Amino acid sequence: MKWIISANPNKYDVVSAFNQYDYIDWSQSANHEIGDVIYIYCSAFIGKIKFKCIVEDVNIPWENVNDDDGFWVDKEDYQKAKTKRFMRLCLQQQIESDDLAFEKLRENGLLGNIQGPMKLESKVNLLSYIEQCFNEDCSKSVYPDEVPEQLSIVEGHRKTVIVNQYERSAVARRKCIEHHGCYCHVCNMDFEKQYGALGKGFIHVHHKIPLSEIGNEYEVDYVNDLIPVCPNCHAMLHRKNMNGSFLTPEELKALITK
Predict the structure, then answer these.
(1) What is the CATH number of the domain that holds 129?
(2) E strands within 28-143?
(3) Are residues 129 and 164 in the same domain?
(4) Which of 129, 180, 183, 247 has the CB geometry, 3.0–4.6 Å to 252, for a possible disulfide?
(5) Pairing relation of β-strands 37-42 and 218-219?
(6) Does residue 114 share a domain with residue 180?
(7) Which of 123-148 are b and which e, b meaning 16 or more Cβ less than 10 Å from the residue's Cβ?
């Protein structure tokens, strides 16, 4: 199922939350299911859809929610939220486009305002327009193999957009970090140790075998196929050496420890 939900930045600063975390726990006011796609419309002074997320978990009680009270502008609403159930939204894509402003959505099939959760399956024109806007945006594709947040444990699903992009696995990414640890396995950089709470949970995940070389759908091995690395080392892993090939994480580590 695909949905639009509305986020009021005067009550909860969803933009800052996603700048710090790759997922947020959102109060659940409809029968969302794991795997649902959620487009977040930021109302008030923003007035556009900015985020595409995947539902990773549902019916989460307050005691298991990531406590992000610092992003709640309205503290009264924060207290009220403690009585609700939550779903975990993993960020798949962030976009900054006036094509997703309220007026454009109205021109492409939106009826009325965006308030409560809105199912998109019956709104064919609107859904098609939103998906087209996200598919055409590649502003967040810094590294072709960086593993963003997505749900399926099966990877691949090749797309042709401005550059080749691939659907990735939030479960695999999270399991990779849980297994290997949230630090760079090339230079040992630990962002939380270096920057405190600001750096908590920040790391890139590098795919050892580029999916552009695999092409077909396959089941990812989060232990052997993925490795956490810092952005600097990640960039170096995408630079060819004198022989015209890419270094492995092990080779890059050996290079910097000489």
Answers:
(1) 3.10.590
(2) 37-42, 48-60, 86-94, 118-119
(3) no
(4) 247
(5) unpaired
(6) no
(7) beebbebbeebbeebbeebeeebbbb
- Residue of 110, 119, 162, 107 lying closest to 140 (CA atoms): 162
Return the closest-CA partner of residue 91 out of 161, 27, 19, 144: 19
- 121 and 187 in a single domain? The answer is no
Give dist(CA 66, CA 90) in Å, integer. Answer: 13
Nearest CA among 220, 212, 208 for reference residue 166? 212
3-state SS, residue 151: coil
Q: What residues make up the domain containing 184?
A: 154-256
Residue 141 within any structural domain of the chain: no
Residue 72: strand, helix, or coil: strand
pLDDT 10s per residue in the chain (258 long)? Answer: 999 999 999 999 999 888 777 789 999 989 999 889 999 999 999 999 999 999 988 999 998 888 788 899 988 989 998 999 999 998 888 888 999 999 999 999 999 999 889 999 999 999 999 999 988 764 444 344 454 444 334 444 433 332 333 344 566 777 889 899 999 999 999 999 999 988 888 888 888 876 555 555 556 778 888 899 998 898 888 777 777 788 899 999 999 987
Total count of residues recorded for the chain: 258
> H/E/C letters for each residue in 191-252?
HHHHHHHHHCCCCEEEECCCHHHHCCCEECCCCCCEEEECHHHHHHHCCECCCCCECCHHHH
Residue 144 resides in a domain: no
